[in-house]
Amino acid sequence: MQSASDRHEYPAHWEADVVLRDGGTARIRPITVDDAERLVSFYEQVSDESKYYRFFAPYPRLSAKDVHRFTHHDFVDRVGLAATVGGEFIATVRYDRIGADGTAAPAPADEAEVAFLVQDAHQGRGVASALLEHIAAVARERGIRRFAAEVLPANTKMIKVFTDAGYTQKRSFEDGVVHLEFGLEPTERSLAVQRAREQRAEGRSVRRLLVPGSVAVIGTGRTPGGVGRSVLGNLREAGFTGDLYAVNKAFPEDIEELDGVPAHRSVRDIGGHVDLAVVAVPADHVPEVVAECGEHGVQGLVVLAAGYAESGPDGLQRQRELVRHARAYGMRIIGPNAFGVINTSPQVRLNASLAPQMPRPGRIGLFAQSGAIGVALLSRLHRRGGGVTGITGVSTFVSSGNRADVSGNDVLQYWYDDPDTDVALMYLESIGNPRKFTRLARRTAAAKPLVVVQGAGSAPQGHAVRATRLPRATVSALLRQAGVIRVDTITELVDAGLLLARQPLPRGPRVAILGNSESLGLLTYDACLSEGLRPQPPLDLTTEASAEDFHAALAHALADETCDAVVVTAIPAIGEASPDDAELAQALRSAAAAGPAKPVLVVHVELGGLAEALSAATSTAPRARTATPATAAAEAGPTGTGTTGTTGAGTTSTGPGSATAVSTTPTGTPPAPAAVPGEPAERSRAPEGAHLIPAYPAAERAVRALAEAVKYAQWRREAAEPGKVPEHEDIDEKGAAALIGRLLARGQGLTLGTDETCELLGRYGIPVRRAIPAPTPNEAARAAGALGYPVALKATAPHLRHRADLGGVRLDLADEEQLRRAYAELTELFGAPQQLRPVVQAMAPRGVDTVVRAVIDPAAGAVLSFGLAGAASQLLGDMAHRLIPVTDRDATSLVRSIRTAPLLFGWRGSTPVDTPALEELLLRVSRLVDDHPEVVAVTLEPVVVAPHGLSVLGASVSLAPPPARDDLGPRTLPVY
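The structure assignment produced for this chain is given below.
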């Protein structure tokens, strides 16, 4: 299959797995001389009509000459690609380079004729669209800039493939044929089309795994116990609504059922269709199972078996073969070494996992790479005591194990438009494709909250994840820029999820605090200040407060226009008027339901009964009546997965570590995503009574979750009106590109000299103050004379550069005498001039010294950073970061994000500096790096920002061949 070509070796890097429109997969690869039989077989299965559309005439079979032509390519001027499933062709595309007269021509001709043929059984699956993306990328690589195609007017499907692709095109009609021409450079529209198709395809591929109509458990033991038998039992007990099959090749030939489930020795023996196969056989037997499933038309696999990349090099190779084998049949894989998948929808009720009980249904989607963490999160979200109340249930759960195929990015694509998921919680050990994750996270967060906790940074076994050079805090800041709610622990993950599941988002940081404990109120007040919130003085209702007092105080706080959220504190009270737990819970519920849509949280201390009362509902689904603690416990039934906090017959103990919630949604009210103040009413208005009141055992946990909700709400408001990347008419993009090309011609990578740096930055409107080398006092005097006094004398040796605190800088030298004296002092202190590398520079207006940097990080992409020069950034790490390209809003927030920002705005009576000029500088640096990926690093230090204008006193630029952009190429599944 991979024979040498006429002129070039087989381009293996063109091979790719892709997800098609219906969620299935196909392999795209170059056609070679070994494919003659496959091509003939493929053509025989194409209808006469499709053949007519391809050749504009009846063409029942391919001649030997045709077969030779369509299988012999030089991979430069003639290229053919095939989409395969199960090793057989389902579609082909080819291009032939042509000259201006339309006949075959070699390079440098930059136009090619392109033609497709898709097997009728696979038309409508998006195969041609995927092939067009890949053949266009190949053509660009080979110097082709335009495609031409001739299509019969009746071939509307093919015309639509071209017109919908988003490329700039021309169309003409002549001699009964539609002639299309289009450029191959990606456009904003073509990228938008590609990403929309990517979302639909990847979302549907995950849906095939989470919403199957039939499931086969392969490896079901004949006796109780074992992984396969346990999963089968879990599926049965969950009430899976589809068809269920037990499969084991060791079953007796006469077996018909196992535990009431149809039993078979092989998937091939199943008479009906199988959507999902749960593979619970040893790793050595998995290849045989994959082949059987692929031949039977199974759509997806959950592989529970271990013994893959986590076991060493041999296991890694076994894992790669597993993925390659499954994708060849159009199947996607969760795992191997997976814990399983869950879908609590009443229409599905899928528990294809090792969790012994189905989680309560709810509105939270949960993804965990680690099975152990997945178990812990399910347990916390499921149980009523010791974690988060069962009131906040799960919509879907995916534990990806080794994450050999389906990843968090795929699940995000599914959750984006899943009507059953309002909040997404993710535990990630690594981010395999950071650029794509950031893009998907930004889009998802604009519609529903996305909360992420990242592990220590270790990749799943067998993954070559790019290592980031950025500090952890920087990565966190970049995720927040994309709208991600980034937390540090799984406790914070579920705390935030509990609040966001149905509470409306706060309009701002103003917090009212009320309760029956002055001390607990003050603790909450201090916690709010620590988290950057603006708390009002706590309202102490005293320990004698009744349920009516709580109701009235909460209703008043919610009605107060100066309050954006309310935290209620409660401790056990003694006295005849003190409410019992059920009364207090009902009082809070009724006040929240009647008041304006604002978030309400409860901080409770050792009030087990209150926690139970607040979590009276058993799911986030609407309830018609108010449940008491007793009925809630009875309805909840046994809880927990793994370790649970149950006591007695089906009741659940509530301990001091619990966090709970209450439902006040009336029957029939559909669930709604979190409301955002300022968005259209139909999106932001919470349904009447649609509040859950979460309760936390500590003020710090409640306030931290509220602070994250405040930040996220602010991001949502800003994302509704995104900024723009300004156009600067004085930027010379072409001149900069030519200069970069000439400089890179010298070698693979280099740091530019002073003159080259100034020239390149100057083409983007970034002037750098000239610094003249001064190896002797006389040359220093001549330089100062040329620049004009006053001047600065600086040592630029690496150990003294930007270290004014060490005395390597002399400022405001008014004449030659002062200059020579300063020169002598520097050489006396630090050594000979050749060690100091002194330079003379004209004095800049006084201001605040800042630093601007841009780097290409291998994991995160292009990042722009800003801070104050000196100790603030170097010692304290006070830098802010944004992903490039930076918008005007990004630049404004970047300047204000550092802790030392007050120094720019007139702190303690100082004169404010020209921050608009600083923001413009940031935008120009961003444009430079975004326009020219060869610019891999830029440092401007110091940048002195004065009350009027700024001065760049030092600059360095590094160039390298542009790195590959995996977010701009054709759609393809990653290969680990």
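Interim note for the steering committee: The chain has 29 helices and 41 strands. The CA atoms of residues 773 and 839 lie 4 Å apart.
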